[in-house]
Write a structure and sequence with these properties.
alpha/beta, 7-stranded mixed beta sheet, 18 helices, binds adenosine-5'-diphosphate, binds 5-O-phosphono-D-xylulose, transferase, Xylulose kinase, D-xylulokinase activity
Protein backbone atom coordinates (compact mmCIF):
# COMPACT_ATOMS: atom_id res chain seq x y z
CA UNK A 1 0.00 0.00 0.00
CA UNK A 2 1.15 3.56 -0.64
CA UNK A 3 1.88 6.03 2.16
CA UNK A 4 -0.63 8.51 0.73
CA UNK A 5 -2.86 10.53 3.09
CA UNK A 6 -5.96 10.11 0.99
CA UNK A 7 -7.29 7.82 -1.71
CA UNK A 8 -5.28 7.64 -4.92
CA UNK A 9 -6.61 8.90 -8.24
CA UNK A 10 -5.21 8.65 -11.75
CA UNK A 11 -5.16 11.54 -14.23
CA UNK A 12 -4.27 10.93 -17.87
CA UNK A 13 -3.24 13.28 -20.67
CA UNK A 14 -3.49 11.58 -24.05
CA UNK A 15 -2.09 14.37 -26.19
CA UNK A 16 -0.72 14.53 -29.72
CA UNK A 17 2.78 13.27 -29.07
CA UNK A 18 2.36 11.02 -26.03
CA UNK A 19 0.21 9.70 -23.19
CA UNK A 20 1.15 10.76 -19.68
CA UNK A 21 -0.36 9.23 -16.54
CA UNK A 22 -0.08 10.51 -12.98
CA UNK A 23 -1.09 8.72 -9.79
CA UNK A 24 -2.02 11.45 -7.32
CA UNK A 25 -2.87 11.52 -3.61
CA UNK A 26 -6.37 13.05 -3.61
CA UNK A 27 -5.79 14.57 -0.16
CA UNK A 28 -2.60 16.49 -0.92
CA UNK A 29 -2.15 16.54 -4.70
CA UNK A 30 1.21 14.84 -4.34
CA UNK A 31 2.19 12.89 -7.45
CA UNK A 32 3.12 9.44 -6.17
CA UNK A 33 3.91 7.83 -9.53
CA UNK A 34 4.03 8.81 -13.19
CA UNK A 35 4.53 7.27 -16.61
CA UNK A 36 4.72 8.37 -20.23
CA UNK A 37 4.67 6.59 -23.60
CA UNK A 38 4.92 8.10 -27.09
CA UNK A 39 2.45 8.09 -30.01
CA UNK A 40 3.22 8.21 -33.68
CA UNK A 41 1.53 10.72 -36.00
CA UNK A 42 1.55 10.23 -39.76
CA UNK A 43 3.50 12.63 -41.97
CA UNK A 44 2.68 13.65 -45.52
CA UNK A 45 -0.56 15.37 -46.46
CA UNK A 46 -2.56 14.43 -43.35
CA UNK A 47 -2.09 13.93 -39.62
CA UNK A 48 -3.45 10.61 -38.43
CA UNK A 49 -2.89 8.23 -35.49
CA UNK A 50 -4.26 4.74 -34.82
CA UNK A 51 -6.43 5.05 -31.68
CA UNK A 52 -5.29 1.58 -30.56
CA UNK A 53 -1.80 2.99 -29.98
CA UNK A 54 -3.30 5.52 -27.52
CA UNK A 55 -4.64 2.56 -25.55
CA UNK A 56 -1.28 0.76 -25.70
CA UNK A 57 0.45 3.98 -24.61
CA UNK A 58 -2.01 4.34 -21.72
CA UNK A 59 -1.30 0.77 -20.60
CA UNK A 60 2.46 1.37 -20.86
CA UNK A 61 2.31 4.69 -18.98
CA UNK A 62 0.27 3.00 -16.22
CA UNK A 63 2.66 0.05 -16.12
CA UNK A 64 5.43 2.56 -15.39
CA UNK A 65 3.33 3.82 -12.46
CA UNK A 66 3.56 0.39 -10.83
CA UNK A 67 1.18 -0.88 -8.15
CA UNK A 68 -0.02 2.62 -7.26
CA UNK A 69 -2.20 2.71 -10.41
CA UNK A 70 -4.07 -0.42 -9.29
CA UNK A 71 -4.86 1.17 -5.93
CA UNK A 72 -6.62 4.11 -7.61
CA UNK A 73 -10.21 4.71 -6.56
CA UNK A 74 -11.03 6.92 -9.56
CA UNK A 75 -9.56 7.80 -12.96
CA UNK A 76 -10.13 10.46 -15.59
CA UNK A 77 -8.84 10.95 -19.15
CA UNK A 78 -7.96 14.32 -20.67
CA UNK A 79 -7.10 14.26 -24.36
CA UNK A 80 -6.20 16.12 -27.54
CA UNK A 81 -9.34 17.82 -28.85
CA UNK A 82 -11.28 17.45 -32.10
CA UNK A 83 -9.84 14.15 -33.45
CA UNK A 84 -12.34 12.07 -35.44
CA UNK A 85 -12.43 8.44 -34.24
CA UNK A 86 -14.71 6.12 -36.23
CA UNK A 87 -15.50 2.68 -34.77
CA UNK A 88 -17.13 -0.38 -36.34
CA UNK A 89 -19.72 -2.70 -34.78
CA UNK A 90 -16.97 -4.43 -32.73
CA UNK A 91 -15.67 -1.12 -31.39
CA UNK A 92 -12.55 -1.36 -33.58
CA UNK A 93 -11.31 1.71 -35.51
CA UNK A 94 -12.64 1.80 -39.06
CA UNK A 95 -9.52 3.76 -40.05
CA UNK A 96 -6.88 5.86 -38.22
CA UNK A 97 -8.17 8.94 -36.40
CA UNK A 98 -7.99 12.27 -38.24
CA UNK A 99 -6.23 14.62 -35.78
CA UNK A 100 -6.86 18.28 -34.88
CA UNK A 101 -3.83 19.41 -36.91
CA UNK A 102 -4.85 17.67 -40.12
CA UNK A 103 -5.83 20.53 -42.45
CA UNK A 104 -7.14 18.49 -45.38
CA UNK A 105 -10.72 19.40 -44.45
CA UNK A 106 -10.17 23.15 -45.00
CA UNK A 107 -12.36 23.15 -48.17
CA UNK A 108 -15.15 21.29 -46.36
CA UNK A 109 -14.88 23.80 -43.48
CA UNK A 110 -15.37 26.72 -45.87
CA UNK A 111 -18.35 25.04 -47.51
CA UNK A 112 -20.04 24.10 -44.22
CA UNK A 113 -19.75 27.65 -42.92
CA UNK A 114 -21.33 29.01 -46.11
CA UNK A 115 -24.06 26.35 -46.31
CA UNK A 116 -25.26 26.70 -42.72
CA UNK A 117 -25.80 30.44 -42.42
CA UNK A 118 -22.29 31.94 -42.48
CA UNK A 119 -19.77 32.69 -39.70
CA UNK A 120 -22.08 34.72 -37.44
CA UNK A 121 -24.79 32.03 -37.39
CA UNK A 122 -22.20 29.33 -36.63
CA UNK A 123 -20.67 31.37 -33.82
CA UNK A 124 -24.09 32.03 -32.30
CA UNK A 125 -25.19 28.41 -32.55
CA UNK A 126 -22.05 26.42 -31.71
CA UNK A 127 -19.80 29.11 -30.19
CA UNK A 128 -17.24 28.72 -33.00
CA UNK A 129 -16.74 29.20 -36.70
CA UNK A 130 -15.37 25.75 -37.60
CA UNK A 131 -11.99 25.59 -39.31
CA UNK A 132 -10.21 22.44 -40.46
CA UNK A 133 -9.48 21.36 -36.87
CA UNK A 134 -13.13 20.86 -35.99
CA UNK A 135 -14.49 17.31 -36.02
CA UNK A 136 -17.50 18.16 -38.17
CA UNK A 137 -15.25 19.24 -41.04
CA UNK A 138 -13.28 15.99 -40.76
CA UNK A 139 -16.51 13.98 -40.95
CA UNK A 140 -17.47 15.95 -44.08
CA UNK A 141 -14.01 15.27 -45.55
CA UNK A 142 -14.39 11.55 -44.82
CA UNK A 143 -17.86 11.46 -46.39
CA UNK A 144 -16.45 12.98 -49.57
CA UNK A 145 -13.18 11.08 -49.76
CA UNK A 146 -13.86 7.72 -48.08
CA UNK A 147 -17.63 7.15 -48.15
CA UNK A 148 -17.09 3.45 -47.35
CA UNK A 149 -15.52 4.47 -43.99
CA UNK A 150 -18.54 6.63 -43.18
CA UNK A 151 -20.88 3.75 -44.08
CA UNK A 152 -18.90 1.38 -41.84
CA UNK A 153 -18.94 3.70 -38.81
CA UNK A 154 -21.23 2.51 -35.98
CA UNK A 155 -19.84 4.98 -33.43
CA UNK A 156 -18.12 8.36 -33.68
CA UNK A 157 -15.86 9.42 -30.81
CA UNK A 158 -13.24 11.96 -29.74
CA UNK A 159 -9.82 10.73 -28.52
CA UNK A 160 -10.68 10.98 -24.81
CA UNK A 161 -14.06 9.31 -25.38
CA UNK A 162 -12.35 6.37 -27.07
CA UNK A 163 -10.16 5.62 -24.05
CA UNK A 164 -12.94 6.25 -21.53
CA UNK A 165 -15.18 3.82 -23.41
CA UNK A 166 -12.51 1.12 -23.44
CA UNK A 167 -12.45 1.41 -19.64
CA UNK A 168 -16.19 1.55 -18.97
CA UNK A 169 -17.76 -0.10 -22.01
CA UNK A 170 -20.04 2.94 -22.38
CA UNK A 171 -19.94 5.69 -25.01
CA UNK A 172 -19.61 8.98 -23.13
CA UNK A 173 -18.10 12.42 -23.61
CA UNK A 174 -18.29 15.78 -21.78
CA UNK A 175 -19.36 19.31 -22.68
CA UNK A 176 -15.76 20.60 -22.92
CA UNK A 177 -14.67 18.16 -25.59
CA UNK A 178 -18.11 18.07 -27.28
CA UNK A 179 -17.82 21.84 -27.80
CA UNK A 180 -14.88 21.28 -30.17
CA UNK A 181 -16.83 19.06 -32.55
CA UNK A 182 -18.92 21.68 -34.36
CA UNK A 183 -22.04 19.53 -33.92
CA UNK A 184 -22.66 20.46 -30.28
CA UNK A 185 -24.57 23.68 -29.70
CA UNK A 186 -23.21 25.94 -26.98
CA UNK A 187 -26.56 27.79 -27.12
CA UNK A 188 -28.67 24.73 -26.20
CA UNK A 189 -25.92 22.56 -24.67
CA UNK A 190 -27.06 19.63 -26.81
CA UNK A 191 -26.16 18.03 -30.12
CA UNK A 192 -27.24 20.27 -32.98
CA UNK A 193 -29.75 18.32 -35.08
CA UNK A 194 -29.56 20.69 -38.05
CA UNK A 195 -25.80 20.38 -38.36
CA UNK A 196 -25.90 16.60 -37.92
CA UNK A 197 -28.61 16.24 -40.57
CA UNK A 198 -26.64 18.47 -42.93
CA UNK A 199 -23.51 16.29 -42.71
CA UNK A 200 -25.45 13.02 -42.64
CA UNK A 201 -24.39 11.94 -39.16
CA UNK A 202 -26.93 10.02 -37.06
CA UNK A 203 -26.97 11.31 -33.46
CA UNK A 204 -27.31 7.68 -32.33
CA UNK A 205 -23.64 7.21 -33.31
CA UNK A 206 -22.53 9.88 -30.84
CA UNK A 207 -21.62 9.43 -27.16
CA UNK A 208 -23.81 10.57 -24.28
CA UNK A 209 -22.68 13.94 -22.90
CA UNK A 210 -22.00 13.37 -19.18
CA UNK A 211 -22.58 16.35 -16.87
CA UNK A 212 -19.70 17.89 -14.87
CA UNK A 213 -19.41 15.98 -11.58
CA UNK A 214 -21.33 12.96 -12.89
CA UNK A 215 -19.76 9.48 -12.93
CA UNK A 216 -19.18 8.35 -16.53
CA UNK A 217 -19.03 4.70 -15.48
CA UNK A 218 -16.87 2.17 -13.67
CA UNK A 219 -14.00 0.08 -14.97
CA UNK A 220 -15.59 -3.02 -16.43
CA UNK A 221 -14.57 -6.66 -16.18
CA UNK A 222 -11.66 -7.69 -18.36
CA UNK A 223 -8.25 -9.20 -17.81
CA UNK A 224 -6.30 -6.71 -19.91
CA UNK A 225 -7.65 -3.60 -18.15
CA UNK A 226 -5.07 -1.54 -16.31
CA UNK A 227 -7.33 -0.76 -13.32
CA UNK A 228 -9.28 -2.81 -10.81
CA UNK A 229 -12.88 -3.57 -11.71
CA UNK A 230 -15.30 -1.02 -10.25
CA UNK A 231 -12.82 1.91 -10.23
CA UNK A 232 -14.84 5.09 -10.81
CA UNK A 233 -14.34 6.80 -14.17
CA UNK A 234 -14.90 10.57 -14.41
CA UNK A 235 -16.21 12.27 -17.58
CA UNK A 236 -12.73 13.40 -18.70
CA UNK A 237 -12.48 16.31 -21.15
CA UNK A 238 -10.37 17.98 -23.84
CA UNK A 239 -6.79 18.74 -22.91
CA UNK A 240 -7.16 22.51 -22.68
CA UNK A 241 -10.26 22.25 -20.51
CA UNK A 242 -8.42 19.69 -18.36
CA UNK A 243 -5.47 22.07 -17.90
CA UNK A 244 -7.90 24.84 -16.91
CA UNK A 245 -9.21 22.52 -14.17
CA UNK A 246 -5.67 21.53 -13.30
CA UNK A 247 -4.71 25.16 -12.71
CA UNK A 248 -7.87 25.85 -10.68
CA UNK A 249 -8.37 28.64 -13.19
CA UNK A 250 -10.68 31.56 -12.40
CA UNK A 251 -11.95 34.19 -14.89
CA UNK A 252 -9.41 36.91 -15.60
CA UNK A 253 -6.24 34.79 -15.57
CA UNK A 254 -4.92 33.99 -19.05
CA UNK A 255 -3.07 30.78 -19.90
CA UNK A 256 -0.57 30.29 -22.70
CA UNK A 257 0.14 26.62 -23.44
CA UNK A 258 3.18 25.70 -25.53
CA UNK A 259 2.99 22.14 -26.89
CA UNK A 260 2.43 20.64 -30.33
CA UNK A 261 -0.33 23.24 -30.46
CA UNK A 262 0.03 26.70 -29.01
CA UNK A 263 -3.09 27.81 -27.16
CA UNK A 264 -4.17 30.92 -25.33
CA UNK A 265 -7.33 30.87 -23.22
CA UNK A 266 -9.16 32.01 -20.11
CA UNK A 267 -12.22 30.86 -18.19
CA UNK A 268 -15.27 33.08 -18.69
CA UNK A 269 -18.79 33.21 -17.26
CA UNK A 270 -20.00 34.54 -20.65
CA UNK A 271 -20.70 32.22 -23.58
CA UNK A 272 -18.27 33.25 -26.36
CA UNK A 273 -19.42 33.73 -29.97
CA UNK A 274 -16.65 35.27 -32.12
CA UNK A 275 -17.86 35.59 -35.74
CA UNK A 276 -14.29 36.18 -36.98
CA UNK A 277 -13.42 32.62 -35.96
CA UNK A 278 -10.20 33.63 -34.18
CA UNK A 279 -11.60 32.63 -30.79
CA UNK A 280 -13.20 29.21 -30.44
CA UNK A 281 -16.12 29.36 -28.02
CA UNK A 282 -15.43 26.17 -26.11
CA UNK A 283 -17.27 25.05 -23.01
CA UNK A 284 -15.11 24.24 -20.02
CA UNK A 285 -15.41 21.05 -17.96
CA UNK A 286 -17.07 22.84 -15.08
CA UNK A 287 -20.14 24.64 -16.39
CA UNK A 288 -18.49 27.87 -17.57
CA UNK A 289 -16.79 28.71 -20.88
CA UNK A 290 -13.29 28.56 -22.30
CA UNK A 291 -12.70 31.10 -25.10
CA UNK A 292 -9.51 29.85 -26.78
CA UNK A 293 -7.28 30.52 -29.77
CA UNK A 294 -5.02 27.78 -31.10
CA UNK A 295 -2.05 27.63 -33.43
CA UNK A 296 -0.88 24.56 -35.34
CA UNK A 297 2.80 25.52 -35.18
CA UNK A 298 4.38 25.81 -31.79
CA UNK A 299 7.12 23.69 -30.16
CA UNK A 300 7.54 21.21 -33.04
CA UNK A 301 7.89 24.00 -35.61
CA UNK A 302 10.47 25.92 -33.57
CA UNK A 303 12.39 22.73 -32.77
CA UNK A 304 12.39 21.96 -36.50
CA UNK A 305 13.92 25.36 -37.30
CA UNK A 306 16.57 24.76 -34.60
CA UNK A 307 17.33 21.34 -36.14
CA UNK A 308 17.60 22.84 -39.65
CA UNK A 309 20.05 25.39 -38.31
CA UNK A 310 21.96 22.75 -36.35
CA UNK A 311 21.35 24.70 -33.13
CA UNK A 312 20.27 23.76 -29.63
CA UNK A 313 16.75 25.12 -29.03
CA UNK A 314 18.12 27.61 -26.48
CA UNK A 315 20.84 29.02 -28.80
CA UNK A 316 18.99 32.22 -29.71
CA UNK A 317 20.64 35.58 -30.44
CA UNK A 318 18.97 38.95 -29.85
CA UNK A 319 18.72 41.72 -32.44
CA UNK A 320 18.44 41.78 -36.21
CA UNK A 321 15.30 42.35 -38.19
CA UNK A 322 14.61 38.98 -39.73
CA UNK A 323 11.00 37.73 -39.65
CA UNK A 324 10.12 34.05 -39.71
CA UNK A 325 6.50 32.91 -39.90
CA UNK A 326 6.89 29.27 -38.76
CA UNK A 327 3.71 27.98 -40.42
CA UNK A 328 5.24 24.63 -41.36
CA UNK A 329 1.96 22.73 -40.93
CA UNK A 330 -0.33 25.35 -42.49
CA UNK A 331 -1.87 27.60 -39.82
CA UNK A 332 -5.12 27.98 -37.91
CA UNK A 333 -4.47 31.33 -36.15
CA UNK A 334 -4.26 33.23 -38.44
CA UNK A 335 -6.52 31.08 -40.61
CA UNK A 336 -4.08 30.05 -43.35
CA UNK A 337 -4.50 26.27 -43.76
CA UNK A 338 -2.47 26.18 -47.01
CA UNK A 339 0.42 28.30 -45.73
CA UNK A 340 4.01 27.16 -45.32
CA UNK A 341 6.92 28.77 -43.47
CA UNK A 342 8.06 32.18 -44.67
CA UNK A 343 11.32 34.05 -44.12
CA UNK A 344 11.78 37.77 -44.74
CA UNK A 345 14.53 40.29 -44.01
CA UNK A 346 17.60 38.06 -44.25
CA UNK A 347 20.93 39.99 -44.42
CA UNK A 348 24.63 39.06 -44.56
CA UNK A 349 24.96 39.84 -40.88
CA UNK A 350 21.88 37.85 -39.76
CA UNK A 351 23.07 35.12 -37.38
CA UNK A 352 21.66 31.60 -37.12
CA UNK A 353 20.65 32.43 -33.53
CA UNK A 354 18.65 35.44 -34.75
CA UNK A 355 16.85 33.20 -37.25
CA UNK A 356 15.95 30.84 -34.43
CA UNK A 357 14.75 33.73 -32.27
CA UNK A 358 12.62 34.87 -35.19
CA UNK A 359 10.91 31.44 -35.22
CA UNK A 360 10.04 31.83 -31.51
CA UNK A 361 8.82 35.37 -32.16
CA UNK A 362 6.64 34.25 -35.07
CA UNK A 363 5.06 31.45 -33.03
CA UNK A 364 4.36 33.66 -30.00
CA UNK A 365 3.11 36.60 -32.12
CA UNK A 366 0.21 34.48 -33.40
CA UNK A 367 -0.87 33.58 -29.84
CA UNK A 368 -0.48 37.01 -28.28
CA UNK A 369 -2.60 38.51 -31.05
CA UNK A 370 -5.54 36.63 -29.52
CA UNK A 371 -4.72 37.22 -25.84
CA UNK A 372 -7.00 40.22 -25.34
CA UNK A 373 -9.77 38.50 -27.29
CA UNK A 374 -10.01 35.55 -24.89
CA UNK A 375 -10.14 37.74 -21.79
CA UNK A 376 -13.31 39.36 -20.49
CA UNK A 377 -13.38 43.14 -20.92
CA UNK A 378 -13.04 43.78 -17.18
CA UNK A 379 -10.00 41.49 -16.77
CA UNK A 380 -6.99 43.08 -15.06
CA UNK A 381 -4.32 43.27 -17.79
CA UNK A 382 -1.49 43.10 -15.24
CA UNK A 383 -2.41 39.61 -13.97
CA UNK A 384 0.46 37.20 -14.70
CA UNK A 385 0.14 35.02 -17.75
CA UNK A 386 0.34 31.35 -16.75
CA UNK A 387 2.81 29.55 -19.03
CA UNK A 388 2.32 25.77 -19.34
CA UNK A 389 3.01 22.85 -21.72
CA UNK A 390 6.35 21.26 -22.63
CA UNK A 391 7.71 24.54 -24.07
CA UNK A 392 7.18 26.38 -20.77
CA UNK A 393 10.33 24.59 -19.50
CA UNK A 394 12.44 26.35 -22.14
CA UNK A 395 14.18 29.60 -21.29
CA UNK A 396 13.92 30.93 -24.86
CA UNK A 397 10.14 30.37 -24.81
CA UNK A 398 9.80 32.04 -21.40
CA UNK A 399 11.82 35.08 -22.42
CA UNK A 400 10.06 35.43 -25.78
CA UNK A 401 6.61 35.40 -24.15
CA UNK A 402 7.78 37.87 -21.52
CA UNK A 403 9.29 40.31 -24.04
CA UNK A 404 6.44 40.17 -26.55
CA UNK A 405 3.58 40.26 -24.00
CA UNK A 406 4.97 42.89 -21.64
CA UNK A 407 3.20 40.99 -18.84
CA UNK A 408 4.48 39.15 -15.81
CA UNK A 409 4.77 35.45 -16.60
CA UNK A 410 4.15 32.73 -14.03
CA UNK A 411 5.55 29.24 -14.61
CA UNK A 412 3.78 26.61 -12.51
CA UNK A 413 6.20 24.10 -11.01
CA UNK A 414 3.71 21.31 -11.68
CA UNK A 415 4.60 19.88 -15.05
CA UNK A 416 1.62 17.93 -16.28
CA UNK A 417 -1.34 20.24 -15.82
CA UNK A 418 -3.63 18.36 -18.19
CA UNK A 419 -3.09 15.09 -16.31
CA UNK A 420 -3.37 16.93 -12.99
CA UNK A 421 -6.67 18.46 -14.11
CA UNK A 422 -7.94 15.01 -15.00
CA UNK A 423 -6.76 13.77 -11.59
CA UNK A 424 -8.60 16.67 -9.91
CA UNK A 425 -11.74 15.69 -11.80
CA UNK A 426 -11.35 12.10 -10.57
CA UNK A 427 -10.74 13.34 -7.00
CA UNK A 428 -13.86 15.51 -7.24
CA UNK A 429 -15.92 12.35 -7.84
CA UNK A 430 -14.68 10.95 -4.53
CA UNK A 431 -15.01 14.10 -2.40
CA UNK A 432 -17.92 15.86 -4.09
CA UNK A 433 -15.74 18.96 -4.58
CA UNK A 434 -15.53 21.16 -7.67
CA UNK A 435 -12.38 19.86 -9.48
CA UNK A 436 -10.99 23.39 -9.91
CA UNK A 437 -11.31 23.84 -6.13
CA UNK A 438 -9.46 20.54 -5.67
CA UNK A 439 -6.62 21.87 -7.87
CA UNK A 440 -6.51 25.12 -5.87
CA UNK A 441 -6.29 23.08 -2.67
CA UNK A 442 -3.39 21.17 -4.29
CA UNK A 443 -1.77 24.55 -5.14
CA UNK A 444 -0.95 23.39 -8.65
CA UNK A 445 -0.42 26.84 -10.17
CA UNK A 446 2.35 27.75 -7.71
CA UNK A 447 5.62 28.65 -9.35
CA UNK A 448 8.05 31.49 -9.99
CA UNK A 449 6.76 34.75 -11.47
CA UNK A 450 9.02 36.53 -13.96
CA UNK A 451 8.48 40.28 -13.69
CA UNK A 452 7.07 42.19 -16.62
CA UNK A 453 9.55 43.78 -19.03
CA UNK A 454 8.85 46.51 -21.57
CA UNK A 455 6.73 45.12 -24.42
CA UNK A 456 8.66 44.76 -27.69
CA UNK A 457 5.95 46.35 -29.82
CA UNK A 458 8.34 47.01 -32.73
CA UNK A 459 8.90 43.29 -33.32
CA UNK A 460 5.17 42.55 -33.10
CA UNK A 461 4.42 45.32 -35.61
CA UNK A 462 7.12 44.09 -37.99
CA UNK A 463 5.67 40.56 -37.93
CA UNK A 464 2.13 41.86 -38.41
CA UNK A 465 3.36 43.90 -41.41
CA UNK A 466 5.07 40.91 -43.06
CA UNK A 467 1.99 38.78 -42.44
CA UNK A 468 -0.22 41.32 -44.09
CA UNK A 469 2.09 41.95 -47.08
CA UNK A 470 2.63 38.23 -47.64
CA UNK A 471 -1.07 37.34 -47.38
CA UNK A 472 -1.52 36.27 -51.04
CA UNK A 473 1.50 33.95 -50.84
CA UNK A 474 0.40 32.46 -47.53
CA UNK A 475 -3.17 31.96 -48.70
CA UNK A 476 -2.31 30.05 -51.84
CA UNK A 477 0.44 27.85 -50.39
CA UNK A 478 3.78 26.85 -51.85
CA UNK A 479 2.64 24.44 -54.56
CA UNK A 480 1.43 20.91 -55.07
CA UNK A 481 4.01 19.22 -52.83
CA UNK A 482 2.40 17.60 -49.77
CA UNK A 483 3.91 18.82 -46.53
CA UNK A 484 6.09 16.28 -44.75
CA UNK A 485 7.59 15.98 -41.32
CA UNK A 486 10.28 13.51 -40.28
N1 LIG B 1 13.02 21.88 -21.69
C1 LIG B 1 12.29 22.19 -22.78
N2 LIG B 1 12.48 23.37 -23.40
C2 LIG B 1 11.74 23.71 -24.49
N3 LIG B 1 10.82 22.91 -25.04
C3 LIG B 1 10.62 21.72 -24.47
C4 LIG B 1 11.31 21.31 -23.32
N4 LIG B 1 10.87 20.07 -22.97
C5 LIG B 1 9.93 19.76 -23.89
N5 LIG B 1 9.77 20.74 -24.79
C6 LIG B 1 8.85 20.79 -25.94
O1 LIG B 1 7.61 20.36 -25.49
C7 LIG B 1 6.93 19.71 -26.57
C8 LIG B 1 5.96 18.72 -25.98
O2 LIG B 1 5.08 19.43 -25.17
P1 LIG B 1 3.73 18.81 -24.68
O3 LIG B 1 2.99 19.90 -23.97
O4 LIG B 1 4.00 17.56 -23.93
O5 LIG B 1 3.07 18.47 -26.09
P2 LIG B 1 1.71 17.75 -26.47
O6 LIG B 1 0.81 17.93 -25.27
O7 LIG B 1 1.24 18.48 -27.66
O8 LIG B 1 2.00 16.31 -26.77
C9 LIG B 1 7.98 19.12 -27.45
O9 LIG B 1 7.63 19.36 -28.80
C10 LIG B 1 9.26 19.88 -27.07
O10 LIG B 1 9.66 20.72 -28.12
O1 LIG C 1 -6.86 21.75 -31.28
C1 LIG C 1 -6.53 22.12 -30.18
C2 LIG C 1 -7.34 23.07 -29.40
O2 LIG C 1 -8.45 23.54 -30.10
C3 LIG C 1 -5.25 21.58 -29.59
O3 LIG C 1 -4.87 22.26 -28.44
C4 LIG C 1 -5.38 20.09 -29.35
O4 LIG C 1 -6.22 19.86 -28.23
C5 LIG C 1 -4.03 19.40 -29.24
O5 LIG C 1 -3.35 19.67 -28.08
P1 LIG C 1 -1.83 19.28 -27.74
O6 LIG C 1 -1.61 17.85 -28.10
O7 LIG C 1 -0.94 20.21 -28.48
O8 LIG C 1 -1.74 19.49 -26.25
Amino acid sequence: MSAAEGPLVVGVDTSTQSTKALVVDAATGQVVASGQAPHTVSSGAGRESDPRQWWDALCEALRQCGDAAHEAAAVSIGGQQHGLVTLDERGEPVRPALLWNDVRSAPQAGRLVAELGGPKAWAERTGSVPGASFTVTKWAWLAENEPEAVRAARAVRLPHDYLTERLTGQGTTDRGDASGTGWWSSATEAYDEETLAHVGLDAALLPRVVRPGEVAGTVRDGHDLPFSRGTLVAPGTGDNAAAALGLGLRPGTPVLSLGTSGTVYAVSRHRPADPTGTVAGFADAHGDWLPLACTLNCTLAVDRVAALLGLDREAVDPGGSVTLLPYLDGERTPNLPHASGLLHGLHHDTTAGQLLQAAYDGAVHALLGALDLVLDEDADRSTPLLLIGGGARGRAWQETVRRLSGRPVQIPEARELVALGAAAQAAGLLTGEDPAAVARRWNTAAGPVLDAVERDGATLERITGVLSDAAPLLERGAGAEPRTRD
